[in-house]
Amino acid sequence: MGEVEAQELQLSIKVQETNEANYLPDVPNNQLPRRRGFNWWLRISIYAVFVLAGQAIATLLGRQYYEKGGSSNWLATLVQLCGYPILLPFYFIPALNKNCPTTNSTTSFESKPPSTLVLASIYASLGLLIAGDCYLYSVGLSYLPVSTYSLICASQLAFNALFSFVLNSQKFTPYIVNSLVVLTISSSLLVLQGDDSADSSKVSRPKYIIGFICTVGASAGYALLLSLTQLIFIKVIKKETFRVIMDMIVYQSVYSSAIILVGFFASGDWKGIKNEMEGFELGKVSYIMNLTWTAIVWQLFSIGMVGLVFEASALFSNSISAVGLPIVPVLAVIFFHDKMDGIKAMSMILAIWGFISYVYQHYLDDRKSKSEKKAANDEVSKAFSLET
Question: Helix H segments across 82-204?
Fold first, then answer.
């Protein structure tokens, strides 16, 4: 009798260990997805399309705004943030507001939901961060060729790895370190471009340097935002619903839009909008369509990025964004006739190398996770066979 009880106790312990292995919100390798069924891959695919298409289209539309006569950084920033009302109808779709299946039901049962004050403080803080971040992006895009701008944005992955190490317990492996070093060199090479490259974008050398610094700063800020978002999902919100993603996007967009709107009126840029519209090279209708579609596409991008953070991690989200790295520079050469000189080409090659290095580390982590889960399941199966 005592032997049977001992086997049952051992079996319950192994089952509990297996369940914990399937969902570990506080472990260092939480960047791996928790569910890998068809629905999970479908969501990942949709979010990835939103990120890749949104990033390329929005960047090109933003550059077109400046190329054809736009000059307000405040307005260019505002359209990145103010498109959230188009997301509100999703709140009324019941199927999207159901809880996602989870392998750790005790987490949501035992966790006390955060108070309204805590959530409001979180959304306000993230809104402030994203407002400053988007303004820096706008300044960078106004001073840099779009191909150079996109290549510098690749440094975001390196910053994200650093912040994930500090905030999300991301481990630094040789491949991650290689990715950080290569991406840093990739961005640094662009500082060495000669005056001819700066002249081709019709900006002075000082403005080129300002654009470079602002874009690097924006990349660091957005990397911090993604890492904080992942930390908040795990430590504070602790829910698995589509509504959580919507709340994160909409509420922080409300705060950030209000901040930029204050800056827009305080700076006096609103006074020149009528003249800017009339002087836009493509016409008034194209001016309005440019701003409208920029706002819509940036919201799709936001859904994709936050969705990937929610389903996987901040680093995974950033890695998908980095997949689109070669897309924008190539399109910029076609549509804006940017020069693809030797330094810029080398920078792009190094950036792709850094991305591949990081993705290979993800592949190794994925294989290790599957092996560990398979071993745990085998132990449980053996325990069941011993009992019977």
Answer: 105-110, 116-143, 146-153, 155-167, 174-189, 195-200
Concatenating the DSSP letter of every residue in 318-360 gives HHHHHHTTTHHHHHHHHHS-----HHHHHHHHHHHHHHHHHHH
CB 22 within 8 A of CB 374: no
Q: Which two tokens stand for residue 344?
A: 């810029």
Sequence-distant (6+) residues with CB within 8 A of 202 are: none
Give the DSSP letter string of 203-252: --HHHHHHHHHHHHHHHHHHHHHHHHHHHHIIIII---BHHHHHHHHHHH
| Both tokens assigned to 124 | 């306000």
DSSP string for 27-74: STTTTS-S--SHHHHHHHHHHHHHHHHHHHHHHHHHHHHHHTT---HH
pLDDT in tens, 151-201: 788 778 778 778 878 887 767 788 878 877 787 777 677 666 544 444 444
Token couple for 29: 């390798």
Provide CB contacts within 8 A for 387, sequence distance 6+. Answer: 4, 7, 8, 11
Closest CA to 21 of 383, 364, 372, 367: 372
DSSP class of residue 94 equals: G
The verdict on pTM exceeding 0.70 is: yes
Dihedral Cα 38, 42, 44, 48, nearest 10 deg:
150
113 token code pair: 């939901």
pLDDT, residue 106, reads: 36
Question: Which helix (H) or strand (E) covers residue 387, if one does?
Answer: helix 342-387
Nearest residue to 324 via CA among 144, 56, 134, 57: 56
Query: Cβ–Cβ contacts within 10 Å for residue 114, how many?
Result: 17
- CA distances for 367 relative to 149, 360, 364, angstroms: 35, 11, 5
Backbone angles phi, psi at 99, to 5 degrees: -70, 140
Q: What are the beta bridge partners of residue 99?
A: 241
- CA gap 216, 270 in Å, rounded: 28
